Amino acid sequence: MDAAQQEATARARELQRSWYGEPLGALFRRLIDDLGLNQARLASVLGLSAPMLSQLMSGQRAKIGNPAVVQRVQALQELSRQVADGTVSAAEAAERMEEVKRSSGGSVLNSTQTTASSGAPTVRRVVREIQSLLRSVAGAGDIIEAAQLLSPTHPELAEFLRVYGAGRTSEAVAHYEAHQS
Amino acid sequence: MGEVFAGRYQLVDPIGRGGAGAVWRTWDHRRRRYVAAKVLQQSDAHTLLRFVREQALRIDHPHVLAPMNWAADDDKVLFTMEMVGGGSLAHLIGDYGPLPPRYVCVLLDQLLSALTAVHAEGVVHRDIKPANLLLEATGTGRPHLRLSDFGIAMRKGEPRLTETNLVMGTPGYFAPEQMLGEEPDFPADLFAVGLVALYLLTGRKPDAEALVERFTEQGVPGPPQEVPAPLWDVLAHLLHPDPYARFRTAAGARKALAAAVELLAEPPADEERIEVFDQLGPLPPGYGPDGPETQPVPETKPVPEPETEPATRPETESVPPPPAVPPLPPLPAVPPPPAQPPATRPYPAPVRVTAPVRVTAPLAVLLLALLCLAVGVWALMAA
């Protein structure tokens, strides 16, 4: 590799740091470790081709062109956090990765018209947002502790905290649906 | 190491999956080059018939990927095509998202020129979609599209093979009249081109149903955000739900597209460079650019040395002198004594084989030959 190429790679890594928080080589390698993937499987979940993934990781290319892929990267980062703090089991993580893989940027006509979608995915999405909001405020351990403090006086609030802050997604969905109507 | 098929084609590794079977990177021992082979595990007569019809289609055009040859063996049939290494348009969108309008226009122009040739043969493709539009691995150069997979193509006016035509084609890239079960016609392919164009410009799978609805309710809608107005004029003309309000020919659409390109804005200076990668990956061990790395030994030498080159492949064939079952002995070019199987080498000089079919041709081959003949007659009558 000559000096010009090295310089271009360094610049690409710098750009990646400013766009994605860190160079994509490091970011993707951590996802691979945390989620028990390999490079080919990560490429397939993200919807990238293997050569593209490798160019991004090595800094030959700076930008992820496809916005849907950026969204999938974010979803996987979130998922790996949840796996790390134990709120998502390995089996559930595999299932969630399949969902991430299938997720797309939405329909072409989105900009001008919203299509009515079926209820189930929406509930799941709302639940996930509540979960991630709670978890961005406090860790699972803190939330459980707070729930224990609250449970004698405000059992329903305590349950809410426990279910969305430290429970499984399926449990939270059930809770949401039970309280929806 | 791959098997040799019908004495000529050595299957190397699977590189994709088409409608009716897997596609393998394959070494052609006669032509001494790599080809792509679509392999059909023999199944029902209907699938076989589709396969035969597909292989019967020979269209020579730089943007059409048509079958070159076919061969049959005991339990399988295959046909070969040129190798195309750059993946499909679906790969390209996965990697880059929405493509720049000028780049899209180059691809559409090539697709329409391919369709002009296909339609000139009286053939309706019926399955135009991103996954069937392959790319040569041209890197950062000008892209080169190849229209492939004629598995459900039909000659116009030809009797249909099935009554279940409704399930033919890919949901999402269907023209509305195709959904209604009308006779296949060229404008249906043009509608699909319009959807492919939307997919390339927006990076998302278009919602054909919603689109048709909007056309029906409010006439020609305004352009989606990502589509420049001059280009939308062409696309709307491809996407009209009424086939009679669409372009009638691919050539006509191509001409309108060329005019629209003139009106497009100059691309921004910082536009991302699109590179069409080689998606095939390296050859597996034991294969080089010139085919399998075990050299055919001179015929005077009965037993091959375990190779002088280092680290060929971890093979055991050379160890036991008379292997009980030689892996797939194809037609030997130089007939060995019949009692003695061509045991010394796994692939006895298949390069010179002239007849691809064994004398003890199984039923499949006969059936296939008959079908080919029938399709030929059809084609003649249709022409």
Automatic annotation (TrEMBL), chain A:
Residues 104-120 have a biased composition (Polar residues). The keyword Transit peptide does not apply. Keywords: DNA-binding. Residues 100-120 are annotated as: Disordered. InterPro entries: Lambda_DNA-bd_dom_sf (IPR010982). GO terms for molecular function: DNA binding. This is DNA-binding protein. It comes from Streptomyces mashuensis. The lineage of its organism: Bacteria, Bacillati, Actinomycetota, Actinomycetes, Kitasatosporales.
TrEMBL record, chain B:
Residues 279-345 are annotated as: Disordered. It comes from the Bacteria. Its EC number is 2.7.11.1. Residues 319-345 have a biased composition (Pro residues). Pfam families: Pkinase (PF00069). InterPro entries: Kinase-like_dom_sf (IPR011009), Prot_kinase_dom (IPR000719), Ser/Thr_kinase_AS (IPR008271). PANTHER family: MITOGEN-ACTIVATED PROTEIN KINASE KINASE KINASE 20-RELATED, SERINE_THREONINE-PROTEIN KINASE NEKL-3. This is non-specific serine/threonine protein kinase. It comes from Streptomyces mashuensis.
